[in-house]
Amino acid sequence: MSKLSVLLTGAGGYIAQQLLPVFRERYDLRLVDLTRERDGAALEGVETADLLRDDPETLVPLFSGVDVVVHTGYHRPTGTDPQSLYDGERLNIDMMQRVYGLALEQGVRRVVAASTNQAAKWYEQPYFAGLRDRVDSEDYPRPDSFYGWAKAAYESLGFLYACGSLGRKLEVVQLRIVAPREIDAGEFVDLPRHRYVRDLAGYISDRDLQQLFYKSVETPEIEDEYGVPFHIFYGVSNNARTFWSITNARKVIGYRPVDDSEVRFAADIAKLLNG
């Protein structure tokens, strides 16, 4: 069986670097980023392109003949004031629109995009107040930052492309990644304990993150009950302390996370939470 052709954007970024070991084995890869270097080291096989500013015609060859686009590209805002944050994140929405548009035009079957729990992060407030036990992808987006707002915009824009109102249905999966990193308890010693618990609940290991992405890429049929090939999945491991629901990811793509922060960080939890 021939390998799927996958275009990975933002190939030098943090999430892409976690995916590449598995992606290189499973797919016929095209890699694109603004630069061929990361932390001073050369990035193997990366083509340079600016998905935001390059002429669309120069980007067509990247998307032509591709089965799936995995979009992890990100433009980091340069300022910290509200207007700068808004302007910077608005550029990310424009870049996402370009990815969707080129994918639709060039016959790409599916776009899998790195979103974030911050598209609905406000729900953490009632959770830690004991007023809510769980949030899932069907809950109304409630971002509390411009970063989260932009990701929520990615998602609703993706539904527009998936529902068929622009012609054919472009399959779209948005992955709301929570805490894709090892958790250093030492960073939480002087912070309220719920900050540590939050990261334990949202932890996703490298191998679970890789599984979530490759199953989002490879699952053949992802239409929902209305015939729309669109889903939002939360990116967390099989954590005992959980807030973000992965029920739909288990059902639709067969996501079976194997790691649990309660086990992975048991010694740290005993020290920091239990004294």
Automatic annotation (TrEMBL):
InterPro entries: Epimerase_deHydtase, NAD(P)-bd_dom_sf. The keyword Phosphoprotein does not apply. It holds the Pfam family Epimerase. Its EC number is 5.1.3.2. It is an enzyme of class 5 (isomerase). GO terms for molecular function: UDP-glucose 4-epimerase activity. Residues 6-157 form the NAD-dependent epimerase/dehydratase domain. Keywords: Isomerase. This is UDP-glucose 4-epimerase.
